[in-house]
Amino acid sequence: MNSTHLADLTSAVADLVVTATDGLIDTATARQSARTFADYGMSSLSFLRLIDALEITYGVEIDLETDLDAMRTVASIVDYLTARGVR
């Protein structure tokens, strides 16, 4: 994946985080990979809304038992999606 597509995917995932959290986590904060969404106060409901949005938007099925660690930051989600062929 070239850097433009990666940047676009990162922006799109960050936007989904902002929407899922009703703005509690803003775009700049979402893009920071040093801390997890939980560190920023994401609720379990917001987390489930994010998972639902990712599944609908990218056509992936996320298993919360096996894929949970990949859903902690925008960077980890982007890695997860690109590993599954999302461009």
C-alpha geometry: globular
Per CATH, which architecture? Orthogonal Bundle
Measured on Cα atoms, how large is the radius of gyration?
12 Å
**Regarding CATH, which class?**
Mainly Alpha
Number of E-state strands? 0
**Helix segment tally:** 4
In terms of DSSP E residues, the strand content is under 5%
Largest β sheet strand count, sense and barrel closure: none
From the 3D structure, determine the CATH topology: Non-ribosomal Peptide Synthetase Peptidyl Carrier Protein, Chain A
The helix fraction, in percent, is: 55-70%
Detail the poorly predicted runs.
none
Helix/strand-derived category reads mainly alpha
Number of domains: 1
Q: Quote the distance from N terminus to C terminus.
A: 7 Å
Let me know the average pLDDT. 95
Give the SSE order as H and E letters: HHHH
Q: How would you characterize the overall build of this protein?
A:
There is one protein chain. With 87 residues, the protein is mainly α. It has a single domain (3-83), classed as Non-ribosomal Peptide Synthetase Peptidyl Carrier Protein, Chain A, CATH 1.10.1200. Helices cover 55% and strands 0% of the residues. It has four helices and no strands. It has helices at residues 3-20, 27-31, 44-58, 74-83. Helix 1 packs across helix 4. The protein is globular. The model has no long low-confidence stretch (mean pLDDT 95).
